[in-house]
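Quarterly update from the structural biology core.
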Amino acid sequence: AMAAGAQCAGRQGRYIDYVNGLFARGKELTIAHISEVATNVGLNQNAFETCINSEETKSLIRGDRDQAMQR
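Predicted structure, tokenized:
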């Protein structure tokens, strides 16, 4: 979910802010925190949730994961 969140934050031009928000949470990261960080950095929450749940984003993340596993 964090990788999808980063992709979707990037689509809204807030990748760095989002990732910094995640790191600021430290070890306390849950699915709820991902949405909280998105809100805190000013992302459009509806667009963010739609993006995270889209098949396009899921497919992109699977492709990245599969490519990494081949190395």
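DSSP finds five helices and no strands in the chain.
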